[in-house]
């Protein structure tokens, strides 16, 4: 995918909304000064996409950071997610209003179902469809939905998800799922694109970084975008936030794109969607759920 030369550029969702190629993820970024500063630094560096979730417990700080940056709210693509314990139609509607209040905004650009909670996600999706029709959110989507989840949802929904946010990196490509989403006009998005820091342990990536005069992170993030995948690397470090944005002044060759695809090992560093099965979380308790997310 060529002509990706502007950090403020993006992919167009099937409803016509533009979603920036690159965003800042804020999982494990503490509320207060830590997340406020990270958001400010990102927006100062040109980012126009911030991704949070209710379970991250930092929506207040994200909202404060956006305001403190001086960047107009309408220029920021702001994303949050409904957590598992809040799924179901009515609970989702309440959770959405809670997120708006914490973020100090009157709309979201994208609202996602965080995980496919068995027996719940269809009702949750109905709530998202309502929010979309009421124009409280500009786009709706899902996160961590495998092909069978998507097929099941599409069978009973009136609106196709605009986005599917998945763990995606050189060791977990899931090309079949990428292709399924593309065929159904669902924008693919990468969480944990840097393998929670483990990409720096891959010698082949170090060699490729030398070839382009770039960092390993920049190589991987550029691969994401050239594959048509939105990417949201997380960082609390100002220099790394800035460096992660410097991926719009070079282009990977087709051979190198294919080489990176070939590193796939079907290896996850985050929890498998099956591990976040709702009955298991209830049975094993909240601490189990947090441990799964921290894997």
Question: What features would you describe in this structure?
Answer:
The chain is α/β, with parallel strands linked by helices and 295 residues long. It has one domain: Alpha-Beta Barrel (TIM Barrel), CATH 3.20.20.100. Helix content is 41%, strand content 13%. It contains 12 helices and 10 strands. It has helices at 33-44, 59-69, 89-103, 121-133, 147-156, 175-183, 203-212, 216-226, 238-244, 254-261, 278-284, 286-294, and strands at 10-12, 18-20, 24-25, 49-51, 77-82, 110-113, 140-143, 163-167, 187-191, 230-231. The strands form 2 sheets. It has an 8-stranded parallel beta sheet. It is globular. The model is unreliable at 282-286 (pLDDT under 50).
Please describe the structure with a list of short key phrases separated by commas or semicolons.
295 residues, 12 helices, 13% strand, two-stranded antiparallel sheet, 8-stranded parallel beta sheet, alpha/beta, TIM Barrel, single chain
